[in-house]
């Protein structure tokens, strides 16, 4: 009886260890629906802000990314390994002088952690000199 219990306990422990060992890496969730996007721009001296994106599959390795608030934009992102990267998003904000200037952003985020970066660039204009910036963000399904 003792041998049977010991054998059963050892078998259960081995099965539990095997299930942990055989578990694969974290899987990316199916990105579909409304997501909160939390931007942390504290490294740039600005703090943080939130916005919302609507995400929907658009084929194998393709994700539609829509920003439905102003400024409205709608682009595709493509998957490379575990990283989604959008096509460039170009908006034309106003500067303090009242002139518009082009601001180009490209968003990249990890398909599993949903953490990413926004790479921003702008040319020299009457508003400011040319420059670039990088901001971190995190997506959370709402």
Number of E strands: 9
Radius of gyration: 23 Å
Number of helices: 1
State the CATH architecture.
Beta Barrel
Overall shape: globular
User: Approximately how much beta-strand content do the residues carry?
Assistant: over 45%
SSE sequence, one letter per element:
HEEEEEEEEE
What is the rounded distance between the termini? 54 Å
Summarize the structure.
By secondary structure, this protein is mainly beta.
What would your notes on this structure say?
- With 142 residues, the protein is mainly beta.
- The chain has one domain: Porin (Beta Barrel).
- 15% of the residues lie in helices and 46% in strands.
- It is built from 1 helix and 9 strands.
- It has one helix at 2-22; strands spanning 33-40, 48-57, 62-67, 73-80, 83-86, 89-91, 103-110, 115-122, 131-141.
- Strands 1-2-3-4-5-7-8-9 form an 8-stranded antiparallel beta barrel.
- Strand 1 and strand 2 (48-57) form a beta hairpin.
- The N and C termini lie far apart (54 Å).
Could you name the key traits of this structure?
Porin, 142 residues, single chain, disordered N terminus, 1 helix, mainly beta, eight-stranded antiparallel barrel, globular
Architecture blueprint of SSEs:
Blueprint: H1 2-22, E1 33-40, E2 48-57, E3 62-67, E4 73-80, E5 83-86, E6 89-91, E7 103-110, E8 115-122, E9 131-141
């Amino acid at each position: 009886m003792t041998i049977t219990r010991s054998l059963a306990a050892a078998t259960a422990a081995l099965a539990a260890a095997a299930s942990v060992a055989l578990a694969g890496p974290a899987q990316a969730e199916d990105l579909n629906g409304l997501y909160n996007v939390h931007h942390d721009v504290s490294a740039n001296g600005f703090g943080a802000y939130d916005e919302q994106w609507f995400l929907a599959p658009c084929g194998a390795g393709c994700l539609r990314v829509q920003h439905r608030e102003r400024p409205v934009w709608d682009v595709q992102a493509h998957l490379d390994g575990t990283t989604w990267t959008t096509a460039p998003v170009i908006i034309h904000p106003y500067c303090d002088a009242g002139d518009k200037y082009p601001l180009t952003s490209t968003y990249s985020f990890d398909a599993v952690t949903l953490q990413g970066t926004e790479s921003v660039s702008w040319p020299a204009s009457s508003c400011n000199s040319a420059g670039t910036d990088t901001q971190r963000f995190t997506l959370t399904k709402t």
